[in-house]
Amino acid sequence: MSEITVAREGAATLAFVEGLHGALAELAQGAPHVAEDDLSLFSLAVIEIATNIAVHAPQGGPAVSLSVELSAGDELRAVLRDSAPPVPLDLTATTTMADALAESGRGLAIAAAVCDELSVERRQGNLWRLVRRVGSHSV
Amino acid sequence: MNIERRDSAGAVVVGLDGRLTAAVAPLLRAEVSDLVAAGRTRVVVDLAGVDFIDSSGLGALIGALKATRVAGGDLRIAAAGEQVRQVLRLTNLDRVLQVYPDADGAFDGV
Lengths: 139, 110
Known about the structure:
The structure holds two protein chains of two kinds. Chain A is an alpha+beta fold. Chain A has one domain: Heat Shock Protein 90, CATH 3.30.565. Chain A contains four helices and five strands; from the N terminus they run βααββααββ. The longest helix of chain A is centred in the N-terminal third of the chain and has 21 residues. The model of chain A has no long low-confidence stretch (mean pLDDT 91). Chain B has one domain: Transcription Regulator spoIIAA. Helices cover 35% and strands 33% of the residues of chain B. Chain B is globular, with a radius of gyration of 12 Å.
């Protein structure tokens, strides 16, 4: 199966995250074999992680950069690399869905729920990898 | 995202369109906060024009819901599309924010 890749790079801001919707639409156009539900949930996960990076980027210091590579083939994959200080994050602890009336804290839980693989590595910044396998889900 | 406001049978309908994400969530919080401060505590958020919501958008809806309830009112959502419904189910918020079919009927019978 042919694979399509879409990449974006910029400062880790909410405006940049909004721009990622265009990149995700481009990916969807290039991957007509992928079901709408898979694309929709994968897009949600990518936006959640990118938003997390933008919101937690330290203010006042050098701007945090963010590069995003999206690809679609047998699976949907995203790699997000930022230049922020390492995130002290235990993914297994933060992926429980927040209480009903909580106003924040759902982003990572959502990403974990819709991805088959979600990981973060500290490597001169943070390297996030997201994978959603295509056509193998009930949600 | 655009926000427009109109009156409907004792409630205020706040109509949104586009994406309800972190970039615009503060606008919704501010809008509902202004309404509650003005004594308008029955609010319907019309989501017919919203094609994408994320956890930040949900957080703004929950914050707005709490603001209206603390003031003795309520907030209801209406006309949500499939992506919004999917995210509500995923986060178990479909029980807290049930979707009314039509913004103008969301407070009927109250």
